[in-house]
Amino acid sequence: MDAPRGLRPDLLFFAAFFATLPLYSPNLTLFQDGFAAAEELMGPFVQSMLVSAALAGVALALASSRRGGAVFLGAPAVVGGSLLYVGGYGLFAAQLVLGWGAGPAAILAGAAVALGAAELCVAWGALLSCLGLRTALLCLALTVGGGSVIELLVSTVPAAVGAGVFALLLAAGVAVPCARALAGRLEADLTGEGAALAADAAAAEEAEGGAAEEALIVRRRDGESFPALVRRMVAVVAVPLAGLLVLGYITGVRKFMMFDMVYMETVGGVLAALIAVPLCMARTRRPLLPFFHQLILPSFALVLIVLNSFPEATPPLWFAAWLTYVFFALVGILALAGLCAMAHAREFPPALIYGLAVAGYAAVSLLGIFSGTTAPFQAHNGGPALLVVSTLYFAFLLAAGLTAGWRSGERASAPDATTALAERCERAAREAGLSPREGEILGYLGRGHSVAFIAKTLVISESTVRTHVKSIYRKLGVTSREDLIRFIDEERA
């Protein structure tokens, strides 16, 4: 496996955006703990923000499925979203500091911040989609860890100083996407890297007499309903996405402090980043995401299940409660990396991917806030109820890993391609005029990997892999996997 590469320095500014993103509830503790008026205004602000974010995310996804996602990466959309984001926070800060305004103004501020945040999530997602999975994982580990460190530092200074730092982070978090959008680079990056895929689509349509179902396109396929498109997308990253939603629910229910000094979610983000950095360097013959979700995370979950079995008020149980936040922070980092890899594959537009992620995360966070007011989550500070939720996710993760391993039948020890085999595949791809993506898939086919394995490795749907395989067969003049292997073997000469 290749080491992470292609990480641009400007992408590290995502740490500033992450440190101000209101969907992640620890980022709002500065306002909640540092200002007297927060008790009255925080509720309307947060509820309005989450409802608006959920609606905005769905609207972005629906619009991108009809028109493609490029419209949301232009300068008007990105700059407008940035103004709403900064302006909404400014309005809310003015209410807290100056003491003017009331609930309706807080609701307006929350809605403005949410609309801006949804657009900026799409813009940052498009920026990060230029990275492969390993590099995206490294970038997110560094930036999420860095953002969490910033949160820790801000929590130790007076509220006025923290507000000033937060304002600087706001400016830094919107600067990069605005600059790229004004220069026309966001749209260019999206269409440029997707040009080969678009060419494949046109060629497939022409070869099949215009049959749309045979063409790979970076938007809704002809005749495909929006729910069907969403199901196809969710099927690619179902397990990582489920973990992200559980993280949103748990952080919405209640925040826990460590030694009455710092929030455990923030500490968990720092430690999860320290775990994720070496993981992105791991060499594995399995697809990277399944390797994490079928081996690393289930092993982590088993440790937590054992620790949670100890009696109440014992050190192992306390350690498990703390370690659970590290676990879910790691799940969140891996889920975000999976979304970036999906956007990188260009099967779905970034506005669809990140719009649905924002909508889902906001919805479950709102559900978590409501759950926190119910009797089960009020008892014992919500610890037992959250333990049940966490254990259910642990069980789901273990079951999903076992089921996926049984279904795929793909051995983890599948041999890497030899240099000679790789050269034969590359030569065959050049001579047949295969696109870069088709050449990549040909390499996996030549090594004997299944369609399911290829889909998991490239973070695309199996139907998309099959479309590429049909195009490869047509261009090489073969009709079966056996013919393909013989064709590649004949390239020895």
Q: Specify the helix fraction band.
A: over 70%
- The number of distinct helices, counting runs of at least 4 residues, comes to 22
Average per-residue pLDDT, rounded, comes to: 82
Unreliable spans are 192-219, 410-417
List the domain count as a whole number. Answer: 2
Describe the biggest sheet? 2 strands, antiparallel
DSSP strand count:
2
Q: First CA to last CA: what distance? A: 28 Å
Structural class: mainly alpha
Query: How many whole angstroms does the radius of gyration measure?
Result: 24 Å
Strand content: under 5%
Reading the helices and strands in chain order gives: HHHHHHHHHHHEEHHHHHHHHHHH
Under CATH, the topology of the largest domain can be stated as: Growth Hormone, Chain: A
Descriptive report:
The chain folds into 2 domains: 9-188 and 225-407, Growth Hormone, Chain: A (Up-down Bundle), CATH 1.20.1250; 419-490, Winged helix-like DNA-binding domain superfamily/Winged helix DNA-binding domain (Arc Repressor Mutant, subunit A). The model is unreliable at 192-219 and 410-417 (pLDDT under 50). α19 (436-446) crosses α21 (462-476). The chain has 22 helices and 2 strands. It has helices at 14-20, 29-34, 38-67, 75-98, 103-128, 133-154, 159-182, 185-193, 195-207, 226-236, 238-253, 264-279, 288-308, 315-345, 350-371, 375-378, 383-408, 419-432, 436-446, 451-458, 462-476, 481-490; strands spanning 257-258, 262-263. Strands 1-2 form a two-stranded antiparallel sheet. With 493 residues, it is an all-alpha fold.
